[in-house]
Write a structure and sequence with these properties.
This protein has 300 residues and is an alpha/beta fold. It folds into two domains: 88 residues, Arc Repressor Mutant, subunit A (Orthogonal Bundle); 155 residues, Glucose-6-phosphate isomerase like protein, domain 1 (Rossmann fold, 3-Layer(aba) Sandwich). The protein contains 14 helices and five strands. A five-stranded parallel β-sheet has the order 2-1-3-4-5, with helices on both faces. α11 links the parallel β3 and β4. α2 packs across α5, α7 packs across α13 and α10 runs parallel beside α11.
Length: 300
């Protein structure tokens, strides 16, 4: 009964009672997340009771939810898509769009439920007091995140750098000292050279913050680990859902940090926004020849 469960779910979906249909739709939209979910989580996501989950499993010939999920996991191992964890090659454009959006929303919902708020507060408190914050990264995705983090910290008036060069990370680690923070972003969390820089920074008394997934060597060595768990991507080592989750965590940190820094930070943010509106290259008032400090030419 293991093989073909996903097909059975799709084929029988229209004829199921309303509550069971919602359960099956939830499973089909994100089967890999469903496999890892508890009965309570699945019931909450589908908007049904936990006994309905049990009845749905029995409707397909499985005496327990555990047997159903085991069959689903086996079926995924056989029929898993290399396109996307929730999308099959036969899906229509509408189904593809819906499944990708739902998978992303589901991952962010789980992030909200599982995020360690106390750790967020500890990281924010340390960032607010840091003399310098160096953001380490390895690879395209984490480098973008480190640059975004550095940019956001800079807007708040904090001294921050984004460093992706491995030798420069070592230089940074040797100069941050006890008042500095090394903020390391790596979802994979096992890049040898960056780990060496992290260990050296800690040896100098530097606080190491890590944005990574649970169980990585980086998570183990960090003083303050920010752990983000998302389903594994079918194509990339760091998929879109990890990308989105990291951005949301950075947003959480920066908003809380601005709150802690108080009026000075908010005034700076407002001034920065006004400056961009007045002199930015994307401003409707930008003349191209105006010098910084000159008043813009207002259109009638």
């Amino acid at each position: 009964m293991a093989a073909g469960l996903l097909k059975k779910l799709r084929d029988r979906l229209p004829a199921l009672p309303d509550a069971q249909r919602r359960v099956v739709q939830c499973v089909l939209e994100d089967p890999r997340t469903a496999v890892a979910a508890t009965v309570e989580q699945l019931a909450q996501q589908a908007g049904v009771s936990m006994p309905t989950i049990v009845r749905t499993c029995r409707a397909f010939g499985y005496e327990s939810v555990r047997e159903f999920m085991l069959a689903l996991a086996q079926d995924l191992a056989i029929t898993g898509s290399w396109l996307h964890r929730s999308v099959s090659a036969e899906d229509s454009a509408q189904d593809t769009v819906s499944k990708i959006v739902h998978a992303a929303v589901s991952s962010l919902t789980e992030l909200g439920r599982g995020i360690d708020v106390a750790m967020i507060e500890r990281v924010v408190d340390r960032l607010a007091k840091a003399s310098r914050i160096d953001c380490y990264s390895v690879g395209a995705a984490s480098t973008f995140m480190a640059q975004e983090l550095q940019n956001r910290l800079f807007r708040l008036g904090l001294t921050a750098n984004a460093i992706f060069d491995l030798h420069q990370q070592l230089v940074s680690a040797s100069t941050l000292g006890p008042d500095g923070v090394a903020f390391v972003i790596s979802h994979v969390g096992r890049m040898p050279y960056t780990l060496e820089a992290v260990k050296f920074a800690r040896a100098q008394g530097t606080t190491v913050v890590a944005l990574t997934q649970p169980g990585t060597p980086l998570a183990e060595v960090a003083d303050l680990p920010l752990l983000v768990s998302v389903p594994q991507d079918a194509v990339m080592r760091v998929g879109t859902e990890a990308y989105l989750a990291h951005l949301v965590v950075i947003e959480m940190l920066m908003v809380r940090l601005a709150q802690q820094l108080g009026p000075v930070a908010t005034r700076g943010l407002r001034q920065y926004r006004e400056l961009l509106q007045k002199y930015g290259f994307d401003s409707a008032e930008y003349s191209g020849a105006r010098e910084i400090g000159d008043e813009p030419k207002h259109r009638e």
